[in-house]
Amino acid sequence: MEANLQKSLSKKRYAFCFDSTFAFFRDRPFCPLISPYDPNAIDLGNKNLSPSGEHLLGTDYLGRDLLSRILIGARTSLSIAFGVVLISLLIGTALGCAAGYYGGIVDESASRVIDIFLSFPGIIFALAIMGVLGSGVFNLIFALSIVQWAKYARVMRGQVLSLKKQEFVLSAVTSGADDFHIILKHIVPNAIAPLLVLATIDFGHVILSIATLSFLGIGLPADVPEWGAMLSAGKEFMRTAPYQTIFPGLAITSFVVIFSILGDGMRDILDPNHEEGEIY
Amino acid sequence: MKYFIKRTGFMALTLFAVCALTFFLMNVIPGGTAELILKHTFVGLEESVTEEQLSQISSRYNLDDPLYLQFFRWIREAFVTGDIGTSYVFKKPVLYLLALRLPATIQLAGTSMALAAVAGVSLGIYSALQENRTSDHILRIITLFGVSMPGFWVALILILIFSLKLKLVPVLGYGSLENLLLPAAALSLHSAAAVMRVTRTSMLETLGQEYIRFAKAKGLPIWRIISRHAFKNAMLPVVTVIGFQMGSLLGGTVVIEKIFAWPGIGSLLVDSISARDLPVVQGCVLAIVTMFLLVNFLVDILYTRLDPRIRYG
To answer: Could you say which residues of chain A have pLDDT below 70?
Structure first.
């Protein structure tokens, strides 16, 4: 595992993606250099400015520095996506383990529920939930988690089904360990790898969903710096200030690409024998 | 046949579950349904709403009954009379509104799916044949960005280039072919990229098989090997992914329709959410889910036809 990690990080593109993501969570020492502005400071005298030396990406309709808002928007998206992925991972793991380990009626009913949640377009349902609950960070995390968890549950169930028959689990059963101990100590650590790969790639999808909902005006409150909401505001000035439409979209796209590549890297680390081709 | 029945049963079960989920979701709103109906009835006079009026509404619409009773009454109405509620805003039956909007959505989603399937499959095959050459690399990079770009951003960029800068097509409008071009292109890009990726992988795998090598050794021309030997076998995973992509495509219609003011179910859904017209929201969700389930049902049936080895259950 260690060796795989080393090998993977030695591949330049993985290392680059890894660094660029976590740069946003460190102290961001480089940020004040290129964007010394407060992302929420309104400056009506300087609204809709084109990119220049002073404002590298220009300003929006309230005179706020676009680059500062895009950088801070990364934190918004990443934090919410992290919440969604974590909750989905926990629910998925718990239900998948229960279904796979206990089998029988538990498996039957859990599998039906999973199938149902996988068989309709999630974003539509998330839209409806947001429509009822109204916009807000926690509502957004809740709505997206509800439509995301089933994927994880299905993968986990498959993992548990194959692990259950392996000798180390059987010997734990024979030596009288209780179910909780077996699941937590023996099954989950051995089953979690593909879920972590899925979670990494999912990060990108969740960021896309967040942006879509915010773009439609039902994700986050309007004053939160978020890429989808910025795009939605920017499109009103598409004729005169097209860069307001272009840059936030570039930010979204690059993050989704980064997480697909990171997911690929994760697979190299956790599951070096995988057969599937790389995403690029 | 047995599989057919089983599959129909699952579809009905899923539809029922989605009905139940949306119904309960729509009835847990803060403030309650009665207040919402009143707000829509007395727009601008919200302050003057009295307790008495609230209870009147509650008893008229049987809102005091337990939720499951309301749900079964709703289901019965839906089956017997096709009545799935009345819009608060338009004061018209939801089914009528949906029927009005359905053709536009089917037109847009159908065109996009066809575009995505044709472009994805042909470029995927081309990319597989050119494996590791420059054109393959370029196509793969385009694919990676195609699945990563948000559809609404692609739509805005297309408007920016083709409508505002080049002035080739109108920004908004519905009816003629040139109105359909941009929304369909924006909507299909993501699916086309996904279909292409799967086609390429599947095609490469098939081309590595013994019988293809044998066909090559026999001296058959390459186009004949592809069309007669490789294509059919490589298409199985592609058909699956096309059915699957229908989901993201229908999800995408919502935002694409909103951008292009396309008079379909997606824009109706967004507008109803903003207006808190919950019966219409519910109707739109059900309509989109039903379309998705039907397409996947057809795909599954097609799958058993394509691969006679598959005979489920």
So the answer is: 1-36, 53, 271-280
CA B54 from chain center: how many Å? Answer: 38
Structure tokens at A7: 């090998």
What is the token pair recorded at A269? 């680390």
Residues recorded for chain B: 313
CB atoms under 10 Å from CB of B4, counted, come to: 14
Whether A249 and B247 lie within 8 Å, measured CB to CB: no
Q: Is A280 on the interface with B (CB under 8 A)?
A: yes
CB-CB under 8 Å, A128 with B282: yes
Rounded to 5°, the CA angle B183-B185-B188 comes to 105
- The pLDDT assigned to B247 comes to 81
In chain B, residues with a C-beta closer than 8 Å to the C-beta of A122 are: 247, 251
Q: Which residues contact B247 (CB under 8 A, 6 or more apart)?
A: A120, A121, A122, B292
**ipTM of this predicted complex?**
0.83
- Low-confidence residues of chain B, pLDDT below 50? 313
Report pLDDT for B313.
43
Q: Which residue has the tokens 């996009």?
A: B112
Interface contact B150-A228, CB threshold 8 A? yes
- What is the Cα–Cα distance from B182 to B170, expressed in whole angstroms? 9
CA atoms of A178 and A156, how far apart (whole Å)? 20
Cα distances from B34 to residues B56, B81, B176, in angstroms, run 9, 24, 43
Residues in CB range of B143: below 8 A, 6 or more apart: B193, B196, B197
Q: What values do phi and psi take at A18, rounded to 5?
A: -60, -50
Token duo for residue A47: 């609204």
Query: Helical H runs in B173-276?
Result: 177-207, 210-217, 222-224, 231-259, 265-275
Beta strands in chain A (DSSP E): none
The Cα–Cα gap between A33 and A216 comes to 33
Measured between beta carbons, the chain A residues lying within 8 angstroms of B258 are 216
The span from the CA of B56 to the CA of A154, in Å, is 47
Task: Please state the pTM of the whole predicted model.
Answer: 0.85
